[in-house]
Amino acid sequence: MNPTDAVTRILFEAFSGAEVRLFYLLAYAAIAIFFYGVYVQIRKYSRGTALRLEGRLWARLGAMLASVLSHRTTARRDPAAGNAHRLIFYGFVLLFAGTATITLEYDILEPLFGIRFWHGQFYLVFSLILDVAGVALIAGLLFMMYRRGWMRLPKLDYARPDRVPGDPDFNRPQYRREDWAFLWTLLMIGCTGYVLEAARLVWLQNRADIWDTRWWSPVGALVAEGLRAMGLGRAWRRCAPAWAVVVSRSDRARPHRSDSLHKGEAYFHVGGFVDGPRSARRAALAAGTRFAGTGGRGENYRLNLEAVAESRCLHQVRPLP
Fold this sequence. Notes:
This protein has two domains: 3-230, no CATH class; 238-319, no CATH class. The chain is built from ten helices and four strands; from the N terminus they run H-H-H-H-H-H-H-H-H-E-E-E-H-E. It has helices spanning 17-46, 57-70, 72-77, 79-113, 120-151, 173-203, 208-211, 218-229, 232-239, 280-287, and strands at residues 256-257, 268-270, 273-275, 318-319. The strands form two sheets. It has a two-stranded antiparallel ribbon. A two-stranded antiparallel ribbon has the order 2-3. The longest helix has 35 residues, at 79-113. It starts with 16 loop residues before the first helix and ends with a strand.
């Protein structure tokens, strides 16, 4: 079997059931708000007078699609803005299609028919296309921000021709704020997507099926390499357990165990002592700490996180009941 055939991304990896339910609750709420917005627009247009149009419906629909997909009207007025808008439009459309493709498999085809296709070579090409789409989106947004913020073209001025400076709402500043908020929101969505992608690569860098194929997501891989160059890859693995461990006195500490991802293996380390199965590496880590040989009474009474930190994943350590 080709080694890449097993490559995929596990959705909701390490998520609890409650977290998954919260995700779907927020997703359905966002979809409901979207459809309400569509309803508001339809209600507004339905109040107007009916307009008699020439030509058949399908001909008009085809003309509309040709105009939207070609951006010819935007490009005719301003070629640079038209090209930037193409980057934004097609970048976002591809990213939306990618999300819809994942939803199609995860929520419809796999649970209902057992059909899976989001793995192997398809998944790798899929990742590459969406990475390039994200770059197109960000590039188009940056140009539009430059055009609006530094070029200051007269046609982007919202000043009302029927009023003079000093009149209320002469230059309609709320329109500018809305434009900038829209641009910054899309830019943050695009950039944070790469940060999350890079964080996942750093998190799972010891899994060959993920790290060896990282360059199929070139932008995310570059960001991940940057995180590793800054030392965040090592810190990610070693500091994450500290977020879930309650630092306590060793003589009051209770045994801890890792979560269900680790199939019940438990490692408890205080002052250089480790209970339960351990490898030579863990033993060496324990022997080399400044708490070793102190009988479990280190000067700061801290849990030695190095001995329980796995390199393959984030640990969530919690007390045994």
